[in-house]
Amino acid sequence: MITLNNVSKIYRTGDIETRALKDINLTIDRGEFIVILGPSGSGKSTLLNVISGLDSVTSGRITFKGHELTELSGEELVEFRRDHLGFIFQQYNLLQVLTVFENIQLGSDLCRRPLDIDELLEKVGLSNARNKYPHQLSGGEQQRVSVARSLAKNPDVIFCDEPTGALDEKNSKQILEILQELNTEYQTTVVVITHNLGIAEMADKVIKMNSGEITEIITNKTKKAARDISWG
Ligand SMILES: Nc1ncnc2c1ncn2[C@@H]1O[C@H](COP(=O)(O)OP(=O)(O)OP(=O)(O)O)[C@@H](O)[C@H]1O
Questions:
Q1: Among 15, 181, 185, 210, which residue is least crowded by beta carbons within 10 Å?
Q2: Which pTM was predicted?
Q3: From atom 8 of ligand 1, which residue's Cα is the shortest distance away?
């Protein structure tokens, strides 16, 4: 579904050049649960940004369902992201003046095939918090709202950058369980960036990065349920 051919990304700041991605080749299939591991600065976020069209490549090609992303205009990329991709970050990025329901609704606005918001609220266990505001929720609950918001548009791929970075084990596993369910139920492709080795036990494929390169791709023979992964 997503293919990267010889993708490189160089950042230039003044005289300094940083080769954030070096000649990356990678295929991500529909319905895969992918975990990207690597030390700080190894290029994980850059990889996510170029795959999702948030940032341009310096050289190489990226195709999504046969369409060449690297040829799209800025406007086409915005449309592409809106129609196909969901994002979850460590920060919940909720709008404080909107209720839980309204925050999730924001995710489905303008999209072609939105999911039912009350159904999503039930899925993330927040039906009772429908009319609350973000400041009335715990961190874990806020992250579940942001997961529901990114799912509302029924994306083909959901990109998660340290989605549980700010949460304790119990809340993290709740979030991971939702992602896992979504992956099996709807065949949504899930790509998770993390420092947490335990999360790799849930993956179909683990991609290890170092210094802008993919150093290893491991295919897990068996996957663990979110609640059974090791932690800490
Ligand atoms: N906008 C930018 N301008 C210049 N250099 C950048 C920019 N974004 C990232 N870099 C550099 O590219 C390299 C890869 O960064 P990246 O954020 O992709 O790493 P990462 O693996 O996601 O790190 P972390 O785990 O700390 O988030 C780093 O050396 C970083 O300093």
A1: 15
A2: 0.92
A3: 46
